[in-house]
Design goal:
Helix content: 10-25%
CATH architecture of the largest domain: 3-Layer(aba) Sandwich
Shape: globular
Order of helices and strands: HEEHEEHHEEEHEHEEEEHEE
Strand order of the largest sheet: 2-1-5-3-4
Strand content: 25-35%
Distance between the termini: 48 Å
CATH class of the largest domain: Alpha Beta
Length: about 270
């Protein structure tokens, strides 16, 4: 089992730790000065959660990567909403902290000068699968096996549920709102029109096979049956197959659309 020494030998550095506030809340502290000094301003980072027991035995529990910077990624774990990975890792952190183990955060920052044929190489992306395969961290479901479910594409699935945000209903089309979420058009969503509304609004949807209608501001509509078998936690996944061309003609890759959930499985793009 991999430990801190294995990470240090790969030039990982410790830049933060997790703290238990209560049974449902954690604080994740990042040494910003250390992080900014060592990563030279890059937001492209390979990171690891490491547990340390009261006997000072360490174990690499999880390895992940982010292109948004470590502070942004850790805030997603701290809040614990969005995709199932955020919730699962947050719960795993809490479980160990409640057992009086400490959780440290290590990073291997990108190396901007690393190039091949004039192209920048993404070192964190290249190492992630190899390290997961070799270290077999307990919290990495795939253990280096190629990822096949959208819920594992951490950097593509944003924090997609809006918490404590008041949204006025579109009175013309929606008499009451069950919830709302952000749909970021990352490469998979933009090119294939998948949608994972997220666990925070899953109660707003019906059962497997029910039809959901996606309605754009100009009145254009597309439909998808509800799929509750694709995600490991059985939350809703939608696939608006016919919407690909419309999305690509009206929106840009990376756009974030606010989606309003209305009665009768209707989704309004605001």
């Amino acid at each position: 089992m991999a430990d801190i020494q294995d990470l240090i030998e790969l030039n990982f550095i410790e830049i933060g730790e997790c703290e238990l506030i209560n049974s449902d809340t954690i604080e994740i502290s990042i040494n910003s000065q250390m992080y900014n000094t060592k990563n030279m301003g890059s937001r492209n980072v390979l990171y690891a959660f490491v547990s340390i027991s009261d006997r000072l035995e360490s174990s690499v529990k999880y390895i992940g990567k982010t292109t948004k910077g470590i502070e942004t990624r850790m805030s997603q774990y701290k809040l614990g909403y969005g995709n199932s990975t955020n919730n699962r890792i947050k719960r795993s952190i809490i479980d160990l902290l409640e057992k009086n183990q400490s959780i440290k955060i290590f990073i291997l920052a990108d190396i901007p000068a690393l190039q091949w044929g004039g192209y920048n190489l993404n070192l964190p992306a290249g190492l992630e699968d190899s390290l997961i395969y070799s270290f077999k961290p307990d919290w990495n479901n795939t253990h280096g096996i190629p990822k096949t479910t959208l819920e594992d594409f951490e950097d593509e699935i944003e924090i997609d549920n809006l918490i404590n945000q008041t949204i006025s209903p579109n009175t013309k089309n929606c008499n009451s709102i069950c919830g709302a979420f952000n749909w970021k058009l990352g490469e998979t969503y933009y090119n294939q029109s998948f949608m994972n509304p997220g666990v925070g609004v899953d109660h707003c949807f019906g059962q497997i096979g029910e039809i959901v209608t996606l309605i754009f501001p100009d009145g254009t509509q597309f439909q998808s049956p509800i799929n509750r078998t694709a995600n490991n936690n059985r939350t809703v996944r939608l696939h608006f197959i016919q919407a690909v061309e419309y999305l690509q003609n009206h929106y840009n890759l990376g756009d974030i659309l606010m989606i309003q959930i209305c009665p009768n499985n209707q989704l309004f793009v605001l």
